[in-house]
Amino acid sequence: MTADGEEVIVGGDGLKVGFCELLRLAPDGNSLVHAAGFGWGKEWIGRATVETSSHSLNRFVLDVREPVLVADFDKDTRFERSERLRDQDIRSGMLVR
User: Fold this and answer.
1) Spatial contact of 23 and 37, defined as CB atoms under 8 Å apart
2) What is the spatial distance between Cα 70 and Cα 56, in angstroms, rounded to a whole number?
3) What does pTM read for this prediction?
4) Any residues with CB less than 8 A from the CB of 42 and at least 6 apart, and which?
5) pLDDT tens profile 17-71
6) Judging by DSSP bridges, how do beta strands 93-95 and 68-70 pair with one another?
7) What is the maximum alpha-carbon separation in the chain?
């Protein structure tokens, strides 16, 4: 595990959350790669990418350049909730760039 991976686990454990991830901008400049995390299936780490389309949560986080707090993904209108978050039943979150 990389130092980044250890930081994700320590941070997530300290926050007492079920999911935590570190995303990196992919070489194509349009998607993100899961660099580290926990709570997600192992198939996500290092291989899977997440699009950064114009109405996505990830694009929003990249564009605002400040922490984003989401109390309820179902009610937030700033971006579209991803299918991945719905599939995992993730209802709230904190994202930082």
Assistant:
1) no
2) 14
3) 0.72
4) none
5) 778 788 888 888 778 888 877 777 777 767 767 778 888 888 898 889 899 999 9
6) antiparallel
7) 36
